[in-house]
Structure formats: C-alpha cells, structure tokens
Write a structure and sequence with these properties.
- This protein has 19 helices and 27 strands.
- By secondary structure, it is an alpha/beta fold.
- It folds into three domains: 138 residues, Immunoglobulins (Immunoglobulin-like, Sandwich); 292 residues, Alpha-Beta Barrel (TIM Barrel); 223 residues, Rossmann fold (3-Layer(aba) Sandwich), CATH 3.40.50.1700.
- Strands 11-16-15-14-12-13 form a six-stranded mixed sheet, with helices on both faces. A five-stranded mixed sheet has the order 19-27-26-21-22, with no helix packed on it. It has a four-stranded mixed sheet with strand order 1-23-20-18, with no helix packed on it.
- The structure holds beta-D-glucopyranose (BGC).
- Beta-D-glucopyranose (BGC) binds next to loops.
Length: 746
Amino acid sequence: MKIKLIYGLTFTAALLFTSCNDKKEPKQVSEKITSNEYQGKPINHDYDAKIDSLIAQMTIEEKSGMLHGNSMFATKAVERLGIPELTMADGPLGVREEISRDSWAAAGWDNDFATYYPAGGGLAATWNTELSYLFGTSVGEEAIARDKDVLLSPAINIIRTPLGGRTYEYFTEDPFLNKKITVPFIVGVQENDVAVCVKHYAANNQETNRDFVDVQIDERALREIYLPAFKAAVTEANAYSFMGAYNKFRGEYLCENKYMLTDVLRDEWGFEGIVVSDWAAVHDTKKSIESGLDVEMGTPKPFNEFFYADALIEKVKAGEIAEADVDKAVKRVLQLMFTLKSIDDKGPAKGSINTEAHFQDAYKIATESIVLLKNEKGQLPLNTQNIKSIAVIGNNAKKKNALGGFGAGVKTKREVTPLEGLQNRLPETVKINYAEGYLERYSKTEKAKFGDITLNGPVTIDELEPEMLEEAINAAKNSDVAIVFAGSNRDYETEASDRASLKLPFGQEELIEKVLEANPNTIVVMIAGAPFNIENISHKSSALIWSWFNGSEGGNALADVILGNINPSGKLPWTMPKKLEDSPAHATHSFPGDQSVNYTEGILVGYRWFDTKNVEPLYPFGYGLSYTNFEFSDLKTDKENYNQNEVVNVSFSIKNTGTVDGKEVAQLYVSDPESYVEKAAKELKGFKKVEVKSGDSKLVNIQLPVKELAYYNEVKKEWLVEPGVYNLKIGNSSKNILAEVSININ
Ligand code: BGC
C-alpha cells in the first residue's frame, strides 16, 4: 500500500491566510449542505401491469408510431387505446415557439410567446444551485403550460474548446460545477410533470463534423470529465429522458452505441427513462433499437421513411428484429407518460407562460451571472450624480439574442436590450448619446450564414465604416463616460459550426481602442457566450464587464450591475485563455480532427491543463470581482483523518470588508500531491455562494464526501480513493487560493 507523508496540520490555516480581525461571532450559514440536496422522483411503476396489457393489444404499426417522429416534435398517438402523442419542445433558452408539424417553419401561433431565460453559460456563471433550481421550475411551468411532455434541455456537454459553436448553450469546462448546476435544473423542470431531455449524450464537444466525427476519449477522461453530470442527472436527479448525440464514440454512432446507451446508462447508472435521438441522428434501425435507443426524431422527410417507421415494421415482420426489443421501448415511453400523468388522468391545465413572475425569475438569474473582470480605477459602479451624459456605443447595445443563428431560440414579448436597460434605470438628468459603432456583417461569398457544418463558422466582414467610427469617437468625446457594448451574438455563435478563431468579429477591437483613446473614462462590456481573444482590450481598458445572452431581462440586469443596484457576483464557468493555442485541445493539436478526433489532453481539460502545465490564463476559471472585498479565514476541517465512506466538513469564515453588501463564491479545490497516477494540479470539489453584509462575517460549511476524491481506475474499472494526504484549498477563483489545509485519508 502506498504511504504518504502527512504534512501541515488539519486545524491550522496555511500561509496565504488572511487574518480575521472581526469582533463579531461568525454566523452559521443556513444553506443546504448535503451533496444530494436536490433529488428527483423516479419513474412511476404503479401502472406497469396496465402498460403490459396495453402493449398486448397493440399492432406493430401502432408500436412503431409511438417510437418515431410523426411530426417535427411529437410521436404518433394510438387513439383507440387512449395513448396520446409524446410532445416535445426545445430547449435551453426557454420553450421554443411552436414549429410546423412537417417542416422547420414556425407554426405561426399567436399564443406561443415565452420567457427567454439566460443561456447555459450565464446560468453556470451564477454558481448558484438555487438559481438553477429556480430556472428549472420556471421553464418547467412554461413547458407544461404549452402542453409539452418533454423539454429538450439541459444541454450539458463539457466545453473542451473555446471555439465550440454551442459553448453559449453549455454550462462549463468543469465536471463538478456541471453536475451541481445540472441536477437542480432537472429536479425543478420535472416537478412540473415535464421530462427533461439531457443532451447531447455524449462526447458532443464540437460542431465541426458533428454528423460523423468519431470521438476517441480514454476511459478515465470519459468518466472523470465528460460523464459526471450525465451520471448525476440519472443517479441524483432521476432525469426521465436523454438525447443521443449526432457523433460517433469509439467507432459507433451515439444513437446505436450499446456501450453508452445500455451498459453505462441503464445497467451501471440505472436509467429508466427514454433515450430520444438527436434530430436525424439515427443511421441503422436494428443497431439502434438493439442498443437501447427508444425514440427516433428527425428533420423533414416523409415520416414513414424514418428508420423506426416502415423499416422497423418490416424488420420485425421478417424476424430480423425481435418484437420484444420494440416492446421494451414502447413500455418505457408509456411508463414516462404515466409518470408525467400525461395519459389517463391528465387533470386540469397546468403551468403558466410569458408571465411577469417568470420574467423576474430570468432577471434574478441574469443579475448573478454577470462577471466583473476588471475595475482598476473604481469606475464601477457608475456614480450618476457626477455625470450628465453617457456615450452608449456598439451594435450589441441594441442587439437581441432570443432568436438567431441555427438552432433553438425563443419567441418572446420581452427582451430588454442593454440600451433599453440603461434608459430604464438612468435618471432623466443623464443624456444618452448612442452610436452603433460597428455593423454585424457576413461575407457574401459564404455559402450560407448558418447551418453549414464547417470548421470556419460564419465568415465576418471586419472593417469598420469610417463614418460610423467617427460618430462613435465623437459620442465618446462629447460624453462624460463611454460604455462600449461589444462581443458577439447568436448569429455568430451558433449550433452547427465552430468558430474559426477567437478574434472579435466586425472590427470591434479597433472600435474599442479608438473609443478608449477618445475617452479614458470608458467601460467595456462584452456580451458573448464563449471566450474571445480580449487580451489587448483587457490590457488597455480599466473597467471590463462580461455578460451573456442573458434572457428577457438581460439589459435591466446589466444596467443594475453597471449602476451598482446589484453588486456583481458571477464567476467565469470556463478559462479565458490569452490565446487559443494555450487551450488544451489546441495545445495538443487535437481539434477538430477529421473523420476521427482524439482527445489527447485526457483529463487535463480547462483549468486542469492551465494549472498543471503552468500556462497563465487571461482570466482563470472561477474568477469574478465584486464591488466589495472578502477575506477568508479560520479554515478548518472537523478531523484530520477520514475513512473512505466519510464526509469531510470544511468550514471557514468569510468577512465582507468593504462598504457594500455582496455575494462571494467560495471555491474548494483539492490537490493530491503524491498520487501514483496522473492528476491535475487541482480540481474543484465543492463551492458555496454566500451573501455577506458589509462589515459582517459568515461561517461557511462545505461538505466534501471522501468519495469525491476518487479517480477512475481503468484497469479495475472502479472509482478509487488513494489513501494519504490531500490538500484542500479555498479560494475565490482557481488561481486565487486564499487558504489551505491538509487531511489524511485512510
Ligand atoms: C440539436 C438539438 C435540438 C434538436 C431539435 C438538433 O439540431 O442538436 O439540441 O434539440 O435539433 O431542435
């Protein structure tokens, strides 16, 4: 057995510790602290006998109808047996507008307006599990109000490359944060009798060649990085449905991958729900049904031509496919319907949509998602008492993002833009001088703006119009303060293509530089869902904010942060690299591959790579400033030695030493300095967002189950915790570690 030296004392805080000179007794924080604070209800088996008798009465044609799209977002009903369609709707930004039954065209309803919620990156940047639950309950109420059984959300693939077209839609580069945001979201949605559809299972980390690329990941990285949130979606949240991804994994398409769909998902994790294909992701009737794919959905073609339609019926009749395999899938669909109460006793209409209450839910999430990257001269929050005019510059000040690009958006009656947010919140004494500054323009030579599955993504025109630049410079010169709203939008960051580079599109870098020269009192606000190369801009500006495709109330939330009505508390859910080549998939030249892509960086994804390889990021994972300051002190664990099945109770105090109230995200990272296997320099294993009033201290507890320290042993196919010393590090970003203690695991 391996022996490790125990160094450091469990009960003493380490060198970097700030001293606590607070006279008040620290207050106990009341947050829920167990690792399974949100737990979903399992599939209901009370109706299994009834389901068996229904299946016994069904023809193979009826069964097939229940297993494939008979319209764009629904399966076929079996009316004579009282079985309804299974109805679905996208997606991650809110309930998508109604789509025609047989094409991608909008159905043209006038009652399908919905709340536009912050995109996934924004939700993850809150680092607030309660807000994730709020998001889930709120969007779940909207989905049931639209009579949907399945909401095609959350999208939880790990952000492997900053170029990823769906980075804005996904949560994070870190598996722990990923699962902690995923689980409450699912529980919230499903409490409304709506199933989530957790997507895209799995290893769908790039859009380039997504229809055929064969992803190779070693088993350890798969288990430690890419699967934990999917696993927690089953074992903690009891997700009722999963979506099989487009791509291949180890030679097999994900929608016909027995290892992933049956061995791991059902046999290991105990999944009892249904697996739905991504739209047109099925390639082989027999392989899919035998691998555990239940429902085939797709893009327009005659519905009888789906793999699970005529072909399935013929193959069953010819004895090539066992009818028992079809029955298994039908049974799962019926079990889901009974669990959701969408069959038999449907009861009165439920839910609500497009309501003020839901807009306010979106607002709450948005307020905690915004990340303050830089505030060197204390320009923020903006004191409007000394200001008569503000230059508001940039196309993004007016750009709306509820719809756009390729993929699911939301038809909404409310999307407050950044400019409108300022107009709503600024006193009348302050004049706004607006200048668009840059145009969102794409190259005419490009085949199509969206939808081409290409490495290059949309090709932009990056020259500024001289008159527009001049107008922006004049606005900046003639105003007390300038705010540039830059970044990207949902036409540029889009499903179905990755970006070609991290360069700011449309000539924005030049615009920002010129505005900074014209008025040193300039605040730069980036609105984007994914990292960009902002090293130069960040170097030149003294006040820098990061916001997201941030939902119906995004502009109000942003104005409230700029004006100090809200103290920012968002933290980056991914690393902002100085340059693309610093990111692991690019440093290892293993993106995007061709027919096949090999994730050669293994477990060193995101900050794990930057830390372990000593590469300096521009802004680290977990980073974000506040208008106040926090001191961490008195880091302790409840014991020094732990057995493998115990929980480490980590406690410390956080003091707000500034003059305004604020929220801080305390982050617990763990290092295993003497491991026998390769490990990242540190890994996130706990976090807690706490609100501390100015001058107050709070005692914070984080529960760390020892099992969280396990690594995946590929030979034994087991999670193992190596005995010995582990260093627990508390900080407010992955780089800014403020205190450290050691524990020993027996
Ligand atoms: C996307 C899914 C989406 C589906 C239906 C696919 O192209 O990958 O995320 O749910 O379309 O709109």
